[in-house]
Amino acid sequence: MLCVRALRTFSSLGVPSSSRALTHVFRTTTATNSVARSYATHIAPASKDQPKAASLSVDSNVFKTYKPVSPGIRHLRRPINDHIYQGKPVRLLTACLRKHGGRNSHGRITVRFRGGGHKRRVRLIDFLRTEPGEYDVIRIEYDPGRSAHIALIKARDAAAEGKVKWKYILATEGMRPGDVVQSYRMGMPETTGILRARTVRPGNVLPIRFIPTGTVIHCVALSPTGKALLVRSAGSFAQVVHHDESGRYSHVRLQSGEIRKVLQDCCATIGRVSNLNWKGRKIGKAGRNRWLGWRPRVRGVAMNANDHPHGGGRGKSKSNKHPVSVWGWATKGKRTRKPGPKGPKNSNKMVIRERPRGKEKRTGGS
């Protein structure tokens, strides 16, 4: 008996304490990971050998789902963005956001169904990009005020200070920390050929006259001295399709399929806006919409007659009327404005081709 105990003691002493600790950590980590995997699931492609999707197509299989331990997360689905920075934003590049609950200065509701929501600070995004020079991408952040992600960039110029040194810009698809972006808004380098082609990189800002046809762009400005106004939401992009021989206008195809003229001195950013899978998310429960600042939307047929054209009456009836909005505008496809060439004279003379509607849209016209 004593020999057996001595052998057991000797064997326990023979194993180093570090290896025993590592074994314990490995077992604990394995158990923890197994619990995490059973609670949340990453929906990924079935095989790694499958070809990657095209650069302009949305991969709808990269979402995170959860084990339905409560009704609120049964249908919850979120895009997987493991590269997003988990900390707080730079205080210098934010501003306070005062809530008004959809009311104007007179206290009257001008935007319905707004109110409540989590406290937020406005991220000050640089849509002008006037400062030249190289900027390093420090991190990719979440912005509660928009659907796209934003990137924190830092100037390489040692003399830069404050908001010239640190900036927030819209992150392009595929942008990661360590990338280098540059703005050529104030002028292009005095080079041609291969060196000029190196300027057309995702995240760089160029005048449209220097962007080759077929290039995917976003953050398109409509004035040579103005900020970017078009193509700023998640996953959106535009495309340069033609440069006029006169050297004044370029033709840009927008996300909706509309083709319009833009001054060649206006600037745009190369690439597509980040967070492609944002439109495939599922909120999961009504409370999450309240966190985002949205109150319940009330149907017109559930209102009184003095609150909505569909309201009043006995039972669920809108009195055999055509569906209209609360202000009486037809809401089932009737056009209330005719922009572009088909509309009033000079109403929108920059539109060359309107976006496809109705039968043209259903047949895939663009």
Structural class: alpha+beta
Shape: globular
Q: Strand percentage, roughly?
A: 15-25%
Distance between the termini: 88 Å
Note the total helix count.
Answer: 5
Q: Into which percent range does the helicity of residues fall?
A: 10-25%
Which consecutive residue ranges, at least 5 long each, have pLDDT under 50?
1-38, 50-56
Order of helices and strands: HHEEEEEEEEEHEEEEEEEEHEH
Total strand count, please? Answer: 18
Main sheet characteristics:
7 strands, antiparallel
Q: Report strand order across the widest sheet.
A: 10-17-11-14-15-16-18
- Radius of gyration in whole Å, from Cα? 28 Å
Q: Mean pLDDT score, rounded?
A: 84
Describe, in plain words, how this protein is organized in 3D:
It is a single chain. The termini are far apart. Helix content is 14%, strand content 20%. The chain contains 5 helices and 18 strands. It has a 7-stranded antiparallel β-sheet with strand order 10-17-11-14-15-16-18, with no helix packed on it. A 4-stranded antiparallel β-sheet has the order 8-7-6-9, with no helix packed on it. Residues 1-38 and 50-56 have low confidence and may be disordered. It is of the alpha+beta class.
Topology:
Layout (H helix, E strand, L loop, with lengths): L1 H13 L2 H23 E4 L19 E4 L10 E3 L14 E3 L24 E3 L10 E8 L8 E6 L10 E5 L9 E3 L11 H4 L7 E3 L8 E3 L1 E2 L6 E3 L7 E6 L5 E5 L5 E5 L3 E4 L15 H6 L59 E3 L4 H5 L4
Antiparallel strand pairs: 1-2, 2-3, 4-5, 6-7, 6-9, 7-8, 10-17, 11-14, 11-17, 12-13, 14-15, 15-16, 16-18
